[in-house]
Amino acid sequence: MPVARIESLDREGRGVAHHEGKTVFVDGAVPDEIVEYASYRKKPAWEAAQILRIEREGGARVSPRCAFFGQCGGCSMQHVEERAQVAAKQRVLEDALWHIGRVRPETMLRPVYGMPWGYRHRARMSVRWVPKKGGSLVGFRERRSSYVTDMTSCEVLPRSISDLIPALRALVSRLAARSRLPQIEVAVGDESAALVFRHLDELGEDDQAMLREFAQASGVRVWLQSGGPESARPLEPAQGEPLWYALPEFGVRIRFLPTDFTQVNQGVNRVLVSRALRLLDPRPGERIAELFCGLGNFSLPIARSGAQVVGFEGNAGLVERARENAAANALAARFEVADLTKGEFIAHGPFDKLLLDPPREGAIEAVKALPQDGPRRIVYVSCDPATLARDAAILVNVKGMRLAAAGVVNMFPHTAHVESIALFEKNG
C-alpha cells in the first residue's frame, strides 16, 4: 500500500498529500503525518483515501472526545487540535479570496474562538425507526451515508440536550407515528430550550399525551411541525412563548421562535457581533443598513450606538419579530421586507455604511446593486469563503473598494465549516 506525507488540511478537513502526480485526500489525517493509506475513490487527478496505518503522528493530532467520532458525520475534525483547525480554516479563507476573487486582505484579523464543546444551540437531528437496531435512532447522519448514527450522546450539543438523546430514542420508539417522524429540531435559548418534532402524519391523542409527559419530565418545550417552518406550533399554548438570547455588551435581548434562524454558537456570536461593530464603527446620526438582518442580531446593537438603522430581510415573519425585538429593547431601528436578490433596498438609501450577513449563496445581486458612490464602509459576515471571495471581487474591482481586513470565526468547532468576517472600505 502507498505511503505519503500529509501536507495540509483541505476545506473538508481531510489530509492532503501528493503521490505519483496525484492529489490524495486522506480522511482523518493530520498535517506532517506519514501514513499508509488505501484509496476508496479514484479519479484521473485525485484520490480519496482512508488511513491504514500511521507511521509518524503529526503534532496536531489529539484524541477525539466523542465516542461516536468517525462514524457520526456531524464532526470531521475532533482528531485535530483546535488551533490547528482554525489555522486550516484561515488557509481556506485566504486561498478562496485569492484563487476565486483575486483579492488579498491588507490585514488578517485574529481568529474568533469560543467554547469548543457543548456549543451547538441549534441542530437538526434525524430520526429513523430501525427495528433491527432495537427501536428508534435519534442523532446525526453517518459519514458519507444517509443512515442515522446509533448514538446516545453528543459532545457538541449542550449537555442538557445531549443527555436527552436516550430518552428521545425511547420516546419515539413508543409512538404510534414513530415511522413518520423524520427529524427533531433543537433550539436552545439562554434560559430554556425547545424540541420541534417534524411529523408527516397527524399525531393521535396517545402520542400527544406521551409528548406532554416527556416535556414535563425533561423541562424542554415541545413543538410540532406538520409542514414548512411556518407550520410549527407549540404542543401546549403555554409553551408558545419565544426563546431568547442576550447580547450583554449592548444591553440587548433577542427573542426568537424555535424554527427561526439564529446563530448556532451563541458564545461565538457575542464575540462576532462585538467585532463586527468595532469594524463598522457606527456613529450617531449615520444611516446604516443591514442586509439579511433576520431577527436583528446586528441591527439592534448598531441602533444602540445612536445610528439610524434599517434592516432588510426577505422573510416577512423574521421582519415582524425583528420589529418586536426593537420595541422590546426600546430601540429605534427600522425593519423592512425586501427581495435582496433584486436590490430592493437601494430605494431606501443612501447609506453611509452597510453590514451584510447573507446565507451560503452570498449576496452577489445585492453587491451588484450598490451605487458607485455607495457605502464608504462594508462589513461582510460570511458562512462560505467561496461566495465571499466572489462578492469581494465585485466590491474591489467594480465598486472601487479595498479589502481592508478579513479573518475566520470558529462558529463550528470540530467541523470543516468556515465562517468569516471581512471589512471593505472605499478607496480614497
Account of the protein in words:
The protein has 428 residues and is an alpha/beta fold. It has three domains: 1-61, OB fold (Dihydrolipoamide Acetyltransferase, E2P); 87-115 and 264-426, Rossmann fold, CATH 3.40.50.150; 122-241, OB fold (Dihydrolipoamide Acetyltransferase, E2P) (Beta Barrel), CATH 2.40.50.1070. The protein is built from nine helices and 22 strands. It has helices at 82-99, 159-162, 165-174, 205-218, 266-280, 299-304, 316-328, 364-369, 385-397; strands spanning 3-5, 8-9, 15-19, 22-27, 34-42, 46-56, 107-108, 122-130, 135-139, 183-188, 193-198, 221-225, 233-234, 243-247, 252-256, 287-291, 308-313, 334-337, 353-356, 377-382, 401-409, 419-426. The strands form four sheets. An eight-stranded mixed sheet has the order 7-21-22-20-19-16-17-18, with helices on both faces. A six-stranded mixed sheet has the order 1-5-6-4-3-2, with no helix packed on it. It has a six-stranded mixed sheet with strand order 9-8-10-11-12-13, with helices on one face. Strand 12 and strand 13 (233-234) form a beta hairpin. Helix 1 crosses helix 9 (385-397). The longest helix has 18 residues, at 82-99. It is flat. 45% of the residues are buried. The mean pLDDT is 96.
